[in-house]
Amino acid sequence: MINHTVRTHPSAEDFPYEEHLAYKIARVAADDVAVPTDTAEMIINRIIDNAAVAVASITRRPPTVARRQAQAHPAADGRGATVFGIPGRVSAEWAAWANGTAVRELDFHDTFLAAEYSHPGDNIPPILAVAQHANKKGIDLLRGLATGYEIQVNLVRGMSLHAHKIDHVAHLGPSAAAGIGTLLGLDVDTIYQAVGQALHTTTATRQSRKGLISSWKAYAPAFAGKMAIEAVDRTMRGEGAPAPIWEGEDGVIAWLLAGPEHTYTIPLPADGEEKRAILDTFTKEHSAEYQAQAIIDLARRLRGRIGNLGDIESIVLHTSHHTHYVIGTGAGDPQKMDPTASRETLDHSIMYIFAVALEDGKWHHVDSYAPERAARPETVALWHKISTVEDPEWTRRYLSTDPAEKAFGGRAVITLRDGTVIEDEIALADAHPGGARPFGREQYIAKFRELADGVVTAAEQDRFLAAAENLADLTDLTELNIVVSDDILAQAPDTPEGLF
Predict the structure, then answer these.
(1) I need a labelling partner for 499 at 20 to 30 A (CA). Which of 71, 198, 398, 426 fits?
(2) Do both 295 and 273 map to the same domain?
(3) Three-state SS annotation for the chain
(4) Are residues 277 and 318 in the same domain?
(5) pLDDT tens digit sequence for 62-91
(6) pLDDT (tens digit, 9 = 90+) per residue, 332-384?
């Protein structure tokens, strides 16, 4: 890996475009390096994982709206891409929009956390959509996805967005554009322009994850993927992008991030170096924000040590800066304590999540968020006894680059009315590669089977899994779509007509 220093450069300064971060990313994307076997196997796992969470959300409102929007843009002549749940093809950017929304809706797919937060599986819908549209093969898709993961993960390692209230999809637009460039075998200059254009159009504030969190949280990465496809299309036609997009005098670093005096360090593979960043990412066992994964497992472990939950006086979760300020009481969001809050808000309330997991001893992607579940008086009472505090040691471990120290958990201190104190802690979620029950192919398939049950026929499940596991030799990438019956689709809500 090469560590690249990235800072603002005044317009009057000589700054060759070959030194721009977007150009260096483009060089990585254009490098025709083979995909390592373990990288390829993990990509297959994540394709299965994305399909699992997409079919589980297929009748929910945001994926339904996105799917109906996509259906208004049909494709013909063997072009276009597929949409989860339905046969046929639509325009590739709209397929990416629909599938990206379905994948993100339940907050249930993969994650990478470092200086920034990310769900790098969000790269799969746009890159797959273009692969289907261009009639590419499985081996091409593997190369494109390896790049998408590589670029997003390494941007996340070195450049914080949330510290400046910028949403994390600002790293996704460039990574998806780079991955599409790899997939299509584009030249460095074209990818360079596409990366810059994708960043320029996908930079937004974090209000989408603050206060009254709406369905846009699911649409945001889908929008970034759609913009990445359109950026590639424009630049393939000879159009350019604002440059230098990160380092310019009026660029992203100077005005949206840490400012013109700050220097970032972004690691990227050297020429000929394998792309392995996906191996540092991890998926979710539970449908909730990633910092909640270990805390749910901790609640399940603690449940048997507490007799009557009504005897609890208080619960304090000692955890990292991120957990405290984004999904904890440090956020200062009263909505996180409101039993009438949206699902999107509740999955960003560690207080609610810990209370329900402690009561139920499990977590379910639908039942745990049901309005009637959130409104139970005993749940509300317990929920309102829970608070979070930042513990510098958990923050240090969260930010550590040492795999032996890296942690995304916390310590629970439960005080009973009689003064008894029960404590326990957990560093990593059980499903994390370093956790108690790491996810392998067997667990990814089990998650898919569980979420597809009652939605996708057994025969269709088998067909999809066979295609995914044969990805390296797959010649028809539409086989990675999953079609459900009209009876299932009829369960989706009615939605008003839009423009299209």
Answers:
(1) 198
(2) no
(3) CEEEEEECCCCCCCCCHHHCHHHHHHHHHHCCCCCCHHHHHHHHHHHHHHHHHHHHCCCCHHHHHHHHHHHCCECCCCCCEEECEEEEEECHHHHHHHHHHHHHCCCCCCEEECCCEECHHHHHHHHHHHHHHCCCCHHHHHHHHHHHHHHHHHHHHHCCCHHHCECCHHHHHHHHHHHHHHHHCCCHHHHHHHHHHHHHHCCCEHHHHCCCCCCHHHHHHHHHHHHHHHHHHHHHCCCCCCCCCCCCCCCHHHHCCCCCCCEEEEEECCCCCCCCHHHHCECCCCCCCCHHHHHHHHHHHHHHHCCCHHHEEEEEEEECHHHHHHHCHHHCCHHHHCCCCCHHHHCCCHHHHHHHHHHHCCCCCCHHHCHHHHCCHHHHHHHCCEEEEECHHHHHHHHCCCCCCCCCCEEEEEEECCCCEEEEEECCCCCCCCCCCCCCHHHHHHHHHHHHCCCCCHHHHHHHHHHHHCHHHCCCHHHHCCECCHHHHCCCCCCCCCCC
(4) no
(5) 999 999 999 999 998 889 999 999 999 999
(6) 999 999 999 999 899 999 999 999 999 999 999 999 999 999 999 999 999 99
Same domain, 220 and 365: no
Would you state the pLDDT for residue 478? 98
| Structural domain harbouring 300 | 290-426
Report whether the peptide linkage leading into residue 433 is cis, meaning its omega lies within 30 degrees of zero.
Answer: no
Based on the domain organization, do 71 and 21 belong to the same domain?
yes
pLDDT for residue 214 is more than 90: no
Mean pLDDT of 174-198: 98
Q: Are residues 275 and 174 in the same domain?
A: yes
Residues 355 and 320 in one domain: yes
The last residue of a domain, from among 258, 283, 308? 283
The number of folded domains in the chain is 2
CATH number at residue 250: 1.10.4100.10
- 262, 283, 304 — which closes off a domain? 283
Q: Which residues pair with 6 in a beta bridge?
A: 264
Positive/negative CA dihedral, 289, 291, 297, 302? negative
Kindly report the average pLDDT of the chain as a whole number.
96
* Same domain membership, residue 32 and residue 14: yes
Query: Does the residue 437 lie in any domain?
Result: no
